[in-house]
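Exercise 3.2. Students should predict the tertiary structure of the chain below and write it as structure tokens, then compare their answer with the key that follows.

Predict this chain's 3D structure.
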Amino acid sequence: MRYIRYAFFGALALVLVTVSLANRGTVTLNTLPEAVAAIPGMGVLSYSIQLPMFLVILGGILAGLLLGFVWEWLREHKHRADASQKGAQVRKLERELKKTQAERDKDKDEVLALLDQAS
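Answer key:
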């Protein structure tokens, strides 16, 4: 299974390198369209930068992955909180069980008490 994973990552790397080499031309990224940037006061927010196209593509993929990870982390918060609450409840019940067993076994012989706990 490990070799299949390595083969997949190798193929993915080959595809990404091929796409990167095929898209080396520069493109201009603008924060605002020209019509909106022409509105008085909006020029402050207007920036532009020239980057190779492959950086734009890979940056978009990376931004999408990061947004997806954060979205899932936030969505699963209720499940993590529920698991934490149930874990605390289990620990509390285990403490109560040990306390109850200790009270039950206080008048017994130590060997018999250990045998009861083992089973």
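Discussion points: The mean pLDDT is 89. The two ends are 40 Å apart (CA to CA).
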